[in-house]
């Protein structure tokens, strides 16, 4: 008996997903019975054998390279038989080939799509476009150099920094340093350790003061000492070609 063998590949997928195939043998003959003579009408078991699925590609001309052969799937008569799944690692068009071993002596073997010309056995493994959206941030920090004339001793005291979201030191402060110690021979440079990033354009200002604990060196009173403007222009979303 020469059986038929039709097949149908799984739907197209994105790279990283599994593909599979379904084969449907038809017209198979039952297996011979053990008895030579039957006194009643009887039939043997459904045709056995196995179906092996082979995956070729990626290729748009012919089969391409063999990339995977599944474990054999046992057959018991006509019907649908699904292959084990497989995950390709390269994008492109793949082609399934199904090979039914047959079940001697009543049912011959059958191969479907040996030339990879059946479009139902093609599965396209696709890549997807990537998107990128950027967002800039800036972390405002400041420094101050403190100095005093020679002969007045080492520097000693604290600098205080306060950052405001305005150009005139008004509004709720964005950052207050607390006391930043100054010590040692003049000059000394100290700075802030702000970690709060700013993500929008705007004007900023800082009050800075110095509280000297060396009686020979005078304090520097708090004042709106610095201003700055930040312009952040983020690009729109870009996609792969």
Describe this structure in words.
The chain is mainly β and 241 residues long. It folds into two domains: 4-33 and 43-126, Immunoglobulin-like (Sandwich), CATH 2.60.40.3930; 143-230. It has no helices and 19 strands. The strands form five sheets. Strands 2, 4, 5, 6, 8, 9 and 10 form a seven-stranded mixed beta sheet that branches. Strands 13, 14, 15, 17 and 18 form a five-stranded antiparallel beta sheet that branches. It has a three-stranded antiparallel beta sheet with strand order 1-3-7, with no helix packed on it. β17 and β18 form a beta hairpin. It starts with a strand and ends with a strand. The mean pLDDT is 94.
Topology:
Layout (H helix, E strand, L loop, with lengths): L3 E6 L3 E2 L6 E6 L23 E7 L9 E4 L3 E2 L6 E2 L9 E9 L9 E3 L9 E5 L4 E2 L10 E4 L8 E10 L10 E2 L3 E5 L3 E4 L10 E11 L7 E11 L7 E2 L2
Parallel strand pairs: 2-10
Antiparallel strand pairs: 1-3, 3-7, 4-5, 4-6, 4-8, 8-9, 8-10, 11-19, 12-16, 13-14, 13-15, 13-17, 17-18
